[in-house]
Amino acid sequence: MVQVVMTVAGSDSGGGAGIQADLKTFQELGVFGTTAVTAITVQNTKGVREVCPMTPAVVADQMDAILEDFDVACIKTGMLFSADIIRAVAQKLHEFNRPLLVIDPVMIAKGGQSLLLEEAITALKTELLPLATIVTPNIPEAEVLAEMKIETQEDVEVAAKKLLQLGVKAVVMKGGHRKNNENAEDIVYMENGEQFTVSAKWVETKDTHGTGCTFSAALTAELAKGVPLQKAIGTAKQFIQAAISHGLSIGHGHGPTNHFAYRTFNEVKMKEDVINES
Ligand SMILES: Nc1ncnc2c1ncn2[C@@H]1O[C@H](COP(=O)(O)OP(=O)(O)O)[C@@H](O)[C@H]1O
Ligand SMILES: Cc1ncc(COP(=O)(O)OP(=O)(O)O)c(N)n1
């Protein structure tokens, strides 16, 4: 039976990030995607021009409609925009018995535009993160959530531990914003103290719009299928590596990652050295 997943996220009219990236990724990985739209963004590869948030009630109603009808195996959140939307989402998760939850703590678009109001950070930390199966911050997002600067490998670990203290079960510290990250290494910290890395080859490209959304959507799809966490993260890494290395040079800014590359170019899929235990 096909597994149903839901993304609670913003719409990217340019199709490279947000719910559009999530749905394409879900489709590629064989799960049925549903949505609760938190905001419409007027956006293309050159940046975000306008953000039009939904009311918290409409976000909650969309979640109700889906969760009442389907047995949703895993939910992911992306752009949530405001504290009121975050509270509405948290309340629905409690009402519907807290399914598996992947939180991509989206804050700022590549072009620098804010996708999360500053007033929403406390709600994200106190109301939503404690419900997470896994959270997937990039380095700037981890700096905000952990309230510290991240420069060294030790800083990455200290920040991850601070996030685990909020009640998150696992943290993927994504490495897309780290300097000299030739192995595109992401480090995973688990609540039981275990840690491991997933790595690939760094790709020199400007076409990276939607990398974070795509990675977390792939992880959501794999968790929904019942794949254990470590293997699910490995597959998400293979999916994003294929999508970046076959990125689409369309538009005039940062082109989108290629969601059908994982299926099409299976040499990447065959790579087995993605997970490194430590
Ligand atoms: N140029 C790149 N080459 C290879 N992997 C990359 C590249 N940029 C980002 N990644 C990978 O893409 C995923 C998303 O990371 P990141 O770009 O940090 O997220 P975000 O889009 O949230 O800023 C991570 O697995 C990261 O290691
Ligand atoms: C609607 C919407 N949601 C999220 C993002 C940010 O996506 P991300 O995957 O982090 O990609 P980049 O912003 O780095 O391209 C977005 N832009 N729009």
From TrEMBL:
Keywords: ATP-binding, Kinase, Nucleotide-binding, Thiamine biosynthesis, Transferase. Pathway: Cofactor biosynthesis; thiamine diphosphate biosynthesis; 4-amino-2-methyl-5-diphosphomethylpyrimidine from 5-amino-1-(5-phospho-D-ribosyl)imidazole: step 2/3; Cofactor biosynthesis; thiamine diphosphate biosynthesis; 4-amino-2-methyl-5-diphosphomethylpyrimidine from 5-amino-1-(5-phospho-D-ribosyl)imidazole: step 3/3. Pfam families: Phos_pyr_kin. Residues 12-258 form the Pyridoxamine kinase/Phosphomethylpyrimidine kinase domain. GO terms for molecular function: ATP binding; hydroxymethylpyrimidine kinase activity; phosphomethylpyrimidine kinase activity. It is an enzyme of class 2 (transferase). GO terms for cellular component: cytosol. One of its GO terms (biological process) is thiamine biosynthetic process. InterPro entries: HMP/HMP-P_kinase_dom, PM/HMP-P_kinase-1, Ribokinase-like. Its EC number is 2.7.1.49, 2.7.4.7. It catalyses: 4-amino-5-hydroxymethyl-2-methylpyrimidine + ATP = 4-amino-2-methyl-5-(phosphooxymethyl)pyrimidine + ADP + H(+); 4-amino-2-methyl-5-(phosphooxymethyl)pyrimidine + ATP = 4-amino-2-methyl-5-(diphosphooxymethyl)pyrimidine + ADP. NCBIfam families: HMP-P_kinase (TIGR00097). Belongs to the ThiD family. This is Hydroxymethylpyrimidine/phosphomethylpyrimidine kinase.
